[in-house]
Design a protein that fits this description.
Layout lengths: L1 H14 L9 E11 L9 E11 L2 E14 L3 E15 L7 E18 L5 E17 L2 E10 L12 E11 L8 H5 L1
Length: about 180
């Protein structure tokens, strides 16, 4: 119990530092709710992402995301996606608030089950997503739209979904702050 309290306190302290520095890696963990037109939203989304800050307000990364939901009131579907990502930050000097936009391109693996039958199916296809959100300290909130194309044999329509996630990340260094000396050069 004591070790978990200390670990939790360290994470909180790390989150009160600023965010991004060129040449640094950072890792994040997010959870959230997927929204699809045919199902009730439940918190069934988990994502992990590793990023590299290649410029003061840009990074590239690798993201894995797992989600599960029910479509058409008859199919249970589980999705696992792996994507290469890119984020652009609209960061202003001397602030801890940083809005961003981003996108990802990857591949998803789906597994499903049709209710009241023994029909199980698996398929996979390319996928893409776009997202926007903001970061405060090392807390991240984002909204994403995921394009998940259908597999014609099993499902009659696409299973695109929106998601709302909240999470945290560690690493990444600090935002470079401009000083008067740097502005005069």
């Amino acid at each position: 119990m004591k070790k978990s309290v200390i670990f939790f306190c360290l994470i909180i302290c790390a989150n009160f530092s600023f965010a991004q520095e060129v040449g640094k890696f950072r890792g994040g963990l997010e959870t959230g709710i997927p929204f699809h037109e045919d199902f009730i939203p439940v918190p069934m989304l988990l994502a992990m992402e590793l990023k590299y800050n290649f410029y003061k307000n840009m990074n590239v990364g690798f993201r894995t995301e797992a989600t599960a939901f029910r479509t058409c009131k008859c199919y249970d579907i589980e999705l696992l996606s792996v994507s290469a990502t890119y984020d652009y930050y609209f960061h202003y000097t001397n602030t801890i608030f940083s809005p961003f936009i981003g996108a990802g391109l990857g591949y998803y693996f789906a597994r499903g089950h049709e209710e009241h039958t023994d029909t199980h199916f698996k398929y996979n296809n390319p996928t893409v997503f776009v997202r926007t959100g903001f970061e405060i300290w090392k807390i991240r909130v984002s909204f994403a739209y995921n394009l998940v194309r259908k597999q014609k044999k099993y499902i009659e329509k696409n299973i695109d979904y929106m998601s709302f996630t909240i999470g945290f990340y560690i690493g990444g260094g600090k935002w470079k702050q401009k000083t008067m000396k740097n502005e005069n050069k």
